[in-house]
Amino acid sequence: MQIRVLFFGILRDLTGREAESLTLSEHATLADVVRHYEERNPRLQALVPSIAISVNQEYATLETKLESGDEIALLPPVSGGSGEPAVTDRPSASIVREPIRVLELLDNIKQPEDGAAVLFEGIVRNNTRGRRTLFLDYEAYEPMALQRMNDLADQAGKKFPIRQVVIVHRIGRLEIGETSVAIVVASAHRGAAFDACRWIIDTLKRTVPIWKKEHFEDGAVWADGEPFPADIATGEGSQSGRSASK
Protein backbone atom coordinates (compact mmCIF):
# COMPACT_ATOMS: atom_id res chain seq x y z
CA MET A 1 0.00 0.00 0.00
CA GLN A 2 1.02 3.61 -0.44
CA ILE A 3 0.73 6.40 2.12
CA ARG A 4 1.69 10.09 2.19
CA VAL A 5 4.11 11.29 4.89
CA LEU A 6 4.40 14.95 5.93
CA PHE A 7 7.36 16.56 7.75
CA PHE A 8 7.28 19.76 9.81
CA GLY A 9 9.73 22.03 11.60
CA ILE A 10 13.15 20.54 12.29
CA LEU A 11 12.05 17.20 10.79
CA ARG A 12 11.55 18.92 7.43
CA ASP A 13 15.06 20.36 7.64
CA LEU A 14 16.60 16.99 8.53
CA THR A 15 14.84 15.08 5.75
CA GLY A 16 15.17 17.86 3.21
CA ARG A 17 11.54 17.59 2.13
CA GLU A 18 8.02 18.62 3.12
CA ALA A 19 6.28 15.41 2.03
CA GLU A 20 6.78 12.15 0.21
CA SER A 21 4.95 8.98 -0.78
CA LEU A 22 5.94 5.77 0.98
CA THR A 23 5.18 2.20 -0.03
CA LEU A 24 4.60 -0.26 2.82
CA SER A 25 3.44 -3.83 3.30
CA GLU A 26 -0.28 -4.47 3.46
CA HIS A 27 -0.42 -4.82 7.27
CA ALA A 28 1.96 -1.98 8.21
CA THR A 29 1.57 0.15 11.34
CA LEU A 30 2.91 3.52 12.40
CA ALA A 31 5.82 1.73 14.07
CA ASP A 32 6.91 0.57 10.62
CA VAL A 33 6.88 4.15 9.36
CA VAL A 34 9.02 5.36 12.25
CA ARG A 35 11.51 2.51 11.84
CA HIS A 36 11.74 3.26 8.11
CA TYR A 37 12.93 6.81 8.76
CA GLU A 38 15.16 5.91 11.71
CA GLU A 39 17.04 3.39 9.59
CA ARG A 40 17.47 5.76 6.64
CA ASN A 41 18.27 8.94 8.55
CA PRO A 42 20.32 8.36 11.72
CA ARG A 43 19.98 12.05 12.61
CA LEU A 44 16.29 11.44 13.31
CA GLN A 45 16.94 8.79 15.94
CA ALA A 46 17.59 11.24 18.76
CA LEU A 47 14.35 13.10 17.99
CA VAL A 48 12.03 10.13 17.59
CA PRO A 49 11.28 9.68 21.33
CA SER A 50 9.89 13.22 21.49
CA ILE A 51 7.81 13.37 18.31
CA ALA A 52 4.10 12.69 17.99
CA ILE A 53 2.48 11.15 14.93
CA SER A 54 -0.91 11.73 13.39
CA VAL A 55 -2.98 9.71 10.94
CA ASN A 56 -5.44 11.72 8.89
CA GLN A 57 -5.08 14.68 11.28
CA GLU A 58 -5.68 12.67 14.48
CA TYR A 59 -2.95 11.82 17.01
CA ALA A 60 -2.24 8.09 16.92
CA THR A 61 -0.14 5.39 18.60
CA LEU A 62 2.65 3.32 17.09
CA GLU A 63 0.35 0.28 16.99
CA THR A 64 -2.15 2.02 14.69
CA LYS A 65 -2.78 -0.01 11.55
CA LEU A 66 -2.50 1.91 8.30
CA GLU A 67 -4.56 1.87 5.13
CA SER A 68 -3.63 2.83 1.61
CA GLY A 69 -4.06 6.58 1.08
CA ASP A 70 -3.56 7.54 4.73
CA GLU A 71 -1.87 10.88 5.46
CA ILE A 72 0.80 10.53 8.14
CA ALA A 73 2.41 13.54 9.80
CA LEU A 74 5.59 13.39 11.88
CA LEU A 75 5.24 16.17 14.45
CA PRO A 76 8.10 17.56 16.57
CA PRO A 77 7.16 19.11 19.93
CA VAL A 78 5.11 22.19 19.17
CA SER A 79 6.08 25.82 19.80
CA GLY A 80 4.18 27.85 21.49
CA GLY A 81 -8.46 28.10 6.62
CA SER A 82 -7.68 31.75 7.07
CA GLY A 83 -9.65 34.82 7.82
CA GLU A 84 -11.21 36.65 10.73
CA PRO A 85 -13.31 34.53 13.10
CA ALA A 86 -17.04 34.97 12.86
CA VAL A 87 -18.76 36.82 15.71
CA THR A 88 -21.21 34.31 17.10
CA ASP A 89 -22.03 32.66 20.41
CA ARG A 90 -20.10 29.60 19.28
CA PRO A 91 -16.38 29.12 19.98
CA SER A 92 -14.24 29.81 16.94
CA ALA A 93 -10.61 29.55 15.85
CA SER A 94 -8.61 30.89 12.91
CA ILE A 95 -5.17 30.61 11.35
CA VAL A 96 -4.15 33.78 9.54
CA ARG A 97 -1.18 35.17 7.65
CA GLU A 98 -1.97 38.85 8.09
CA PRO A 99 -1.53 40.89 11.30
CA ILE A 100 -4.04 40.02 14.03
CA ARG A 101 -6.32 42.92 14.93
CA VAL A 102 -6.55 42.20 18.64
CA LEU A 103 -8.63 45.21 19.68
CA GLU A 104 -11.18 44.36 17.01
CA LEU A 105 -11.39 40.79 18.36
CA LEU A 106 -11.93 42.12 21.85
CA ASP A 107 -14.60 44.61 20.82
CA ASN A 108 -16.46 42.08 18.69
CA ILE A 109 -16.75 39.42 21.38
CA LYS A 110 -18.40 41.63 24.04
CA GLN A 111 -22.08 41.17 24.78
CA PRO A 112 -24.38 42.87 27.33
CA GLU A 113 -24.46 39.78 29.55
CA ASP A 114 -20.67 39.71 29.92
CA GLY A 115 -18.99 40.97 33.07
CA ALA A 116 -15.48 40.19 31.83
CA ALA A 117 -13.54 39.82 28.60
CA VAL A 118 -9.97 38.59 29.00
CA LEU A 119 -7.40 38.93 26.19
CA PHE A 120 -4.11 37.04 25.96
CA GLU A 121 -1.70 38.28 23.33
CA GLY A 122 1.50 36.41 22.46
CA ILE A 123 4.10 38.85 21.13
CA VAL A 124 7.38 38.32 19.27
CA ARG A 125 10.17 39.52 21.57
CA ASN A 126 13.62 40.72 20.52
CA ASN A 127 15.74 38.12 22.34
CA THR A 128 15.94 34.45 23.27
CA ARG A 129 18.34 33.20 25.95
CA GLY A 130 20.61 36.20 25.47
CA ARG A 131 20.64 36.12 21.67
CA ARG A 132 19.18 38.97 19.66
CA THR A 133 16.16 37.80 17.67
CA LEU A 134 15.67 39.33 14.22
CA PHE A 135 12.30 37.76 13.33
CA LEU A 136 10.33 34.51 13.64
CA ASP A 137 8.85 32.13 11.08
CA TYR A 138 5.77 30.15 12.15
CA GLU A 139 4.51 27.12 10.28
CA ALA A 140 1.57 24.82 10.97
CA TYR A 141 -0.03 21.57 9.94
CA GLU A 142 -2.99 23.77 9.17
CA PRO A 143 -5.98 21.40 8.92
CA MET A 144 -5.02 19.60 12.13
CA ALA A 145 -4.02 22.81 13.95
CA LEU A 146 -7.35 24.44 13.18
CA GLN A 147 -9.23 21.35 14.31
CA ARG A 148 -7.26 21.20 17.57
CA MET A 149 -7.82 24.91 18.26
CA ASN A 150 -11.56 24.51 17.77
CA ASP A 151 -11.46 21.48 20.07
CA LEU A 152 -9.71 23.58 22.73
CA ALA A 153 -12.40 26.24 22.48
CA ASP A 154 -15.10 23.58 22.84
CA GLN A 155 -13.34 21.97 25.81
CA ALA A 156 -12.87 25.34 27.52
CA GLY A 157 -16.62 25.96 27.24
CA LYS A 158 -17.26 22.69 29.06
CA LYS A 159 -14.56 23.10 31.71
CA PHE A 160 -15.27 26.72 32.67
CA PRO A 161 -18.48 28.82 33.03
CA ILE A 162 -17.71 31.07 30.06
CA ARG A 163 -19.83 32.29 27.15
CA GLN A 164 -17.45 32.50 24.18
CA VAL A 165 -13.87 31.88 23.10
CA VAL A 166 -12.00 33.22 20.08
CA ILE A 167 -8.52 31.90 19.19
CA VAL A 168 -6.43 33.32 16.35
CA HIS A 169 -2.90 32.17 15.47
CA ARG A 170 -0.74 33.78 12.83
CA ILE A 171 1.78 31.90 10.68
CA GLY A 172 4.51 33.02 8.31
CA ARG A 173 7.16 35.65 9.02
CA LEU A 174 6.55 37.81 12.11
CA GLU A 175 8.60 40.84 13.06
CA ILE A 176 9.55 41.97 16.58
CA GLY A 177 6.52 43.30 18.45
CA GLU A 178 3.93 41.58 16.24
CA THR A 179 1.22 39.33 17.68
CA SER A 180 1.61 35.61 17.04
CA VAL A 181 -1.48 34.39 18.91
CA ALA A 182 -4.53 36.05 20.45
CA ILE A 183 -7.09 34.43 22.74
CA VAL A 184 -10.20 36.23 23.93
CA VAL A 185 -12.57 34.75 26.52
CA ALA A 186 -15.89 36.34 27.50
CA SER A 187 -17.86 35.38 30.60
CA ALA A 188 -20.10 36.74 33.31
CA HIS A 189 -17.28 36.72 35.87
CA ARG A 190 -13.55 37.49 35.62
CA GLY A 191 -12.31 34.40 37.47
CA ALA A 192 -13.67 31.97 34.89
CA ALA A 193 -12.38 34.11 32.02
CA PHE A 194 -8.85 34.28 33.46
CA ASP A 195 -8.78 30.55 34.25
CA ALA A 196 -10.05 29.54 30.81
CA CYS A 197 -7.64 31.83 28.98
CA ARG A 198 -4.64 30.46 30.91
CA TRP A 199 -5.74 26.86 30.33
CA ILE A 200 -6.21 27.44 26.59
CA ILE A 201 -2.80 29.00 25.94
CA ASP A 202 -0.96 26.45 28.10
CA THR A 203 -2.68 23.54 26.32
CA LEU A 204 -2.32 25.10 22.87
CA LYS A 205 1.45 25.42 23.31
CA ARG A 206 1.71 21.68 24.01
CA THR A 207 -0.81 20.10 21.63
CA VAL A 208 -1.51 22.26 18.56
CA PRO A 209 0.87 21.46 15.65
CA ILE A 210 2.41 24.90 15.13
CA TRP A 211 6.17 25.47 15.17
CA LYS A 212 8.43 28.52 15.13
CA LYS A 213 11.87 29.08 13.68
CA GLU A 214 13.92 31.77 15.41
CA HIS A 215 16.21 33.86 13.22
CA PHE A 216 19.26 35.43 14.89
CA GLU A 217 22.17 37.51 13.65
CA ASP A 218 24.35 34.38 13.53
CA GLY A 219 21.87 31.80 12.24
CA ALA A 220 18.44 30.24 12.74
CA VAL A 221 17.06 27.38 14.84
CA TRP A 222 13.72 25.71 15.44
CA ALA A 223 12.51 26.61 18.92
CA ASP A 224 12.54 23.81 21.46
CA GLY A 225 8.96 22.70 22.04
CA GLU A 226 7.38 21.53 25.26
CA PRO A 227 6.94 17.75 25.63
CA PHE A 228 3.63 16.40 24.42
CA PRO A 229 1.12 15.59 27.21
CA ALA A 230 1.05 12.04 28.50
CA ASP A 231 -2.19 11.25 26.66
CA ILE A 232 -0.52 11.85 23.27
CA ALA A 233 1.65 8.93 22.19
CA THR A 234 5.16 9.69 20.92
CA GLY A 235 7.80 7.71 19.04
CA GLU A 236 9.58 6.67 22.24
CA GLY A 237 10.46 3.01 22.14
CA SER A 238 10.01 2.60 18.40
CA GLN A 239 13.16 0.45 18.24
CA SER A 240 12.44 -1.45 21.45
CA GLY A 241 11.38 -4.58 19.63
CA ARG A 242 7.64 -4.10 19.99
CA SER A 243 5.88 -6.17 17.37
CA ALA A 244 3.55 -4.57 14.87
CA SER A 245 -0.12 -5.49 15.11
CA LYS A 246 -1.37 -7.63 12.27
Class of secondary structure makeup = alpha+beta
Q: State the share of residues found in helices, binned by percent.
A: 10-25%
Shape: globular
What would you say the CATH architecture of the largest domain is? Answer: Alpha-Beta Complex
Percent of residues in beta strands? 25-35%
Number of domains: 2
Order of helices and strands: EHEHEEEEHEEEHEEEHEE
Query: Could you name the CATH topology of the largest domain?
Result: Aldehyde Oxidoreductase, domain 3
Query: How many distinct beta strands?
Result: 14
Query: What's the CATH class of the largest domain, please?
Result: Alpha Beta
The stretches of 5 or more residues where confidence is low (pLDDT under 50) are 81-91, 237-246
Present the secondary structure layout.
Blueprint: E1 2-7, H1 10-15, E2 19-23, H2 30-40, E3 52-55, E4 58-60, E5 71-75, E6 92-96, H3 102-109, E7 116-123, E8 127-128, E9 131-140, H4 142-159, E10 164-170, E11 172-175, E12 179-187, H5 190-207, E13 210-216, E14 219-222
Helix pairs in contact: 4-5
General description of the model:
Helix content is 25%, strand content 32%. The model is unreliable at 81-91 and 237-246 (pLDDT under 50). Helix 4 packs antiparallel against helix 5 (190-207). The longest helix has 18 residues, at 142-159. The protein has 246 residues and is of the alpha+beta class. The relative contact order is 0.21. The strands form three sheets. A five-stranded mixed beta sheet has the order 2-1-5-3-4. Strands 8, 9, 11, 13 and 14 form a five-stranded antiparallel beta sheet that branches. It has a four-stranded mixed beta sheet with strand order 6-10-12-7, sandwiched between helices. The protein has helices at 10-15, 30-40, 102-109, 142-159, 190-207, and strands spanning 2-7, 19-23, 52-55, 58-60, 71-75, 92-96, 116-123, 127-128, 131-140, 164-170, 172-175, 179-187, 210-216, 219-222. The chain folds into two domains: 2-75, Ubiquitin-like (UB roll) (Roll); 92-222, Molybdopterin biosynthesis MoaE subunit (Aldehyde Oxidoreductase, domain 3, Alpha-Beta Complex), CATH 3.90.1170. It has five helices and 14 strands.
